Amino acid sequence: MDAMRIILITGISGSGKSIGLKALEDAGYFCVDNLPPALLRQLVTSRLEDGGDSLAVSVDARSAKSLASLPEDLAWLRSQGHDVKVLFLTAKTEALIARFSETRRSHPLSHRAAISDEADERRTLTECILAERDMLAGIEEIGHVIDTSGMRANKLRAWIKNLVESDQSPLTILFESFAFKFGVPLDADLVFDVRTLPNPHYDEKLRPLTGRDQPVQDFLLAQPDAVDLLADIRGYVERWLPAVKKDNRGYLTVAIGCTGGQHRSVYFVERLAAHFRTTEHVLLRHRELD
């Protein structure tokens, strides 16, 4: 039996699943939107008969009744030798509310009656989002989470493209810088806080620069605590990386946070990415700079 590359893209409504599916289509995948999970095995069989070798499927809460069987279906596909990846797109509730307001679209669950004494009472948008998070919690646990809260459409397309290109690697490490004042990324597996280090922001010459610039790097290299903390984080990731690989995970997201996401966290992500890139497949993202 021939093996296929299969990507299941799912997640919270408004988080960019349509954009992600279009990016996969542009990458050469045969794409199917809003497929009921009960039809997944049948679709794979049909594509194999047609000689297909790559398939991308979008699944969401509109198929709520058959979502429970999805983990079993994915396990079966893997047992048949198929390379199966699950991308779970999500975003913070306030970001989702803003997107629905801008597009004036209704949430897919808004047309279902809420649990109340009034059969015709409808859920609010916030209630719909929370209900959908609960419905998809089991799927989120088995997928690679992508937080699209502050991500523009073109950046999401590029990010999906990078992930697809990394599919040939057993494990991809994603190093991500962020600002704590804007919240911890929802897609982080490991989170490290570097706010205890001296902040280049308070140097007027360094303030307009970022952790990518040499003067900021020189400033942090001169701080013994920064050197020690970088070594500690590097050592921790190296220590536990074999366990992540043993768990057959396709992605590991390491998030480094500081106050503004401009200097210290960016510097750390750049240094960590450079170190691990010599032996692992690495992607990096600077959330606030992007």
TrEMBL record:
PANTHER family: RNASE ADAPTER PROTEIN RAPZ. Keywords: ATP-binding, GTP-binding, Nucleotide-binding. ATP binds at G11, I12, S13, G14, S15, G16, K17, S18. It comes from Oxalicibacterium faecigallinarum. Coiled coil: none annotated. One of its GO terms (molecular function) is GTP binding. GTP binds at D60, A61, R62, S63. HAMAP family: RapZ_like (MF_00636). This is Nucleotide-binding protein. InterPro entries: P-loop_NTPase, RapZ-like, RapZ-like_N, RapZ_C. Residues 4-167 form the RapZ-like N-terminal domain. Residues 172-289 form the RapZ C-terminal domain. Signal peptide: none annotated.
